[in-house]
Each structure stands twice: as structure tokens, then as C-alpha cells.
Amino acid sequence: MPTYLSARRSTTVYDGLLPARGRLRGAAAGVVLATMLAYLLPSRLIFPPLSDLGKPGIMLALGLLVWWGLSRLHPTLCTTGRQPMRWAIAGYLVTIGASYIAAQSRGMSPLESNGAHRAMITALAGAGMLLTAADGVLTRERIDHVLRWLCWGGTVMALFALSQFALRRDFTTYLRLPPLLAFQRDLIGFDARGGGGLVRVAGTAGHYIEFSVLMVIGLVLAIHFARYSVSRRDRQLYGAVAVLQAGVIPISLSRTGVLALAAAILLFVLVWPLRTTFNVLVVGCFLAAAIQVVRPGLLATLRALILAGDNDPSVRGRLEDYDFVGPYIRERPWFGRGYGTWLPSLYQLLDNQWLVTLVTTGVVGVTGLVLLFLAGVVLAGRVRRFAGAERDRDLAGVLAVALGVAAVSAFTYDALYFTTYLLTVHLLLGLVGALWRVTRAERINQSQGAP
Q: Mean pLDDT, the chain, as a whole number?
């Protein structure tokens, strides 16, 4: 009969009945490296022979998928036991695969076919990040290790953006490694907006909107470490990281950044004590006052963009998209036109990932994507409900909020097109699965009389 009184109990993961053999060594290092390649290198830096698929983060994530798949074939290398996130990503891949098959049956132009192939391979790269994190990051310490690296990747991106905004110079142009990598297109650069010499910046991200969303996600993670790091020095350090990432959100001059920040605050009201929420809001008010002093007009410009409503061309264009895509949706409501086949060069740019998903994968595909996000949020909710340690409950709440922010912000841009967003979301989903496995094992060990 299996025993749970092992001397290695604190670092061994169990599935509740039998020991889960977790020997996918180096998995945490693999997902960290893929994340850092996405955050530290410009989004448009590629390995030229592979075009869009030649982004270093995507290539490594595909390698992680192969690594994970090979580990499943070996009796002592695979991580056994229950893992709900495996089923969630499998269900999502089935829905987009069904839309791909439906597109093949209707016939596609060469451009559409290429787009579908690229999109499917990119989706598999995201699955590689999720599965490697869920089945390879096997201890609580390793989960924190990966998330700390994610915070620092966001910090470097924020520093690049801050230097762009302050100096009007793009240092990301020096982040190339010839002859291996080359810029696919011109970098996104600066975009004058709002007058007064203001420009929006994106750091190393693929777009200003993506940058603002990533900063909000990094902010909520940094706040967790500012509250629960062991040493006072680390708490102060991550507090400074949180202030930096919060401070650069306005310089993207993106309404989506404000929407993501508002969503994070509203969701944190549900998971944080009232006093903690109040303290964070007070710090936010002081930070807003400091931004107003250092760069007068920035917050006023951002407020004007938010209050413009239908008078803003970008808002009006997003509203007109619904009328434009209506006939396409009615033509193929269930499986859509095919995953990855909606190309702006052929049709029209849709700044709404949920609308793109409805057009390309139909109701079935939207259901798959909703269930993928929902699986992560519900699983994090179960961890928050049953975990014994306060820091575990808080981390579960933070991961649920980060996924909620990612899902809500996807209404304002074609989020899954952007590499860093895609890899970040799949990493967070995978770490939710890893946290669920670890906390569940701890409860089972304790119920079996472990000290």
C-alpha cells in the first residue's frame, strides 16, 4: 500500500493515490528561457528562414512541446496523476482543429492556407508552454521561481519603454544577433498621440496595447511578491518593481491598459482584504500625482482618449467591425472560416480577439477558448478555497485575476496574434495547474498523518 511518510515529502508531488513520477528535469528552466526570449527580444526579431514562426520564443516553446511529448512515452520520465489543464488545452486544440478541417473542406486560397498553418503551429507552441509548466514545474518553490523571472522580464520591458519615452530613442534596435536573427519588419517605434509632444511606446512588445496588458499582468504578480516574499529586502524590491510597471502603463497611451487596470482592481476587490485594496489604491493615487508632476498632460491625454467614446476613429472602427463580419458569421456559424484564415490583407483588421475567434472558429471555437480561460480561473478558485497556506491562496487569486485581465483585454485587440501575450497566458494557465497539483498533494499528505 502506498505510503506518504517519505522523508522527501516536501519536494515530492503526489497525485492523491500513487506517487506521481515527476522527472521532467529542467522544465522550469525551459519555460523561463522561452519567456525571457519573448520579453527581452523585440517581437519582430525572427530567424529568417521560418518567417513568423522564427521568433525565438515560439521556436523554443515548440521544442518544449516535443520535449513534453517524448517524456510521456517513457514510464519513468512522465509526470503521472490528474492534471485538469491537460484536458483544458486538449479541448481547445480540438476546437481549433475542427475549424481547420472545416476550412480545408470549403477550400482556401494559398494565403489563407498559409495563415491557417502558421496559426495552428503557434497554438501548438502555446500548448507546449502550458503543458511543460503544468507537468514539469513540480514544487512550490519552482512556481515562485518561474513567476519571479516573469516579473523581471516585464521589468526589463518596462525599462526599455521608459527609456523610449524619456529619450525618444529606441534601444531595442541593438538587440539583434546577426547573422542568426533579423528584423522581419520595421520595429513599431513611436506613435505621436494626443498632442503636446506625447508619443506612445511599447518597449519590446509587438504593439502598444499588448505592452499595456503585459504591464498590468506583471503588476499584479509583483504585488504578490511584495506582500509575501520572505525577506524585507525582497518585499521592498518587488514593491519597487510594482511601482515601475504601474508607472509605465500610462505611457502606452492605450485605453486597453486602463481597462485592464480597472478590471484588475475590480477583481482584486473579490480576493483581497478591504484594507489591502485600500492601501494599494492609496499608493496608486500618489503614483498618479507623481506622474502628473513629472509629465504634465499625460494623464489628461489618457483621460481624453477614454472619454472620446464614439467620436474616436478607433472606437468607431471597432463598432463597425460587427456589421462587417456579420455575413461571414452567419455563413459559417459553428466552425467558422478556419483558424488563422482571417487575414487583414484579405479582409479587414479586427481589433477584437473574441470577434476574430467567432469568425474563424465559430461558436465551437469560442466555447473552447472560454472553457480554456474558465478552467484556469476555476482551478485557481479551488486552490484558493482549499489551500492551507495564505501565500498559496493569495497566489491562486493573483493568477485568476491575471487570467481575467487577459481575457477582458482581448476584447480590444487581436491578442493571440502577439507572441508575448500568447506565451504569457499559456504559462499562467500551466502554472495554475502546477499550483493545483502541489497544494492538493500537501493536503493529501497531511490527511495521511504527515507532520
A: 87
| Residue pLDDT, tens place only, 58-80 | 999 999 999 999 988 877 767 77
Q: Which range scores top for mean pLDDT: 105-109, 254-258, 301-305, 319-323?
A: 254-258
Are 200 and 191 contacting, i.e. CB atoms less than 8 angstroms apart? yes
C-alpha cell at position 35 = 519567456
Grid cell digits, residue 432: 495554475
Q: Whose grid coordinates read 463597425? A: 320
| Of 406, 401, 402, 399, residue with least CA distance to 432 | 399
Residue 317: its H or E element: helix 313-331
In 119-274 the beta strands, taken as DSSP E runs, fall at 182-183, 191-192, 199-200
- With cut-offs at 50, 70 and 90, classify the pLDDT of residue 25: low
Place of cell 477550400: 107
Instruction: Point out which residues pair with 19 in neighbouring strands.
Output: 14
Q: Which residues contact 47 (CB under 8 A, 6 or more apart)?
A: 54, 55, 56, 59, 180, 181
Quote the CA–CA distance of 88 and 376 in Å, as a whole number. Answer: 8
| Residues 171-194, mean pLDDT to the nearest whole number | 77
Which residues lie closer than 8 Å to 426 by C-beta, 6 or more apart?
A: 89, 126, 127, 129, 130, 133
Q: How far apart are CA 292 and CA 157, in angstroms?
A: 22
In degrees and rounded to multiples of 5, residue 170 shows phi and psi of: -100, 100
| pLDDT for position 100 | 93
Q: Where are the beta strands (DSSP E) in 34-133?
A: 45-46
Q: Which grid cell is 12?
A: 515530492
Mean pLDDT of 286-309: 83
Which pTM was predicted? 0.92
d(CA 167, CA 126) in angstroms, rounded, equals 35
**Distance (Å, whole) CA 253 – CA 275:** 30
Q: How far apart are CA 153 and CA 39, in angstroms?
A: 5
Q: Are 20 and 14 in contact (CB under 8 A)?
A: yes
Tell me the H-state helices in 83-207.
84-106, 110-136, 140-167
183 compared with 448, residue with greater pLDDT: 183
Residue 249: pLDDT band (50, 70, 90) is: very high
Grid coordinates given for 395: 497566489
- Given the C-alpha cell 500551466, which residue does it identify? 430
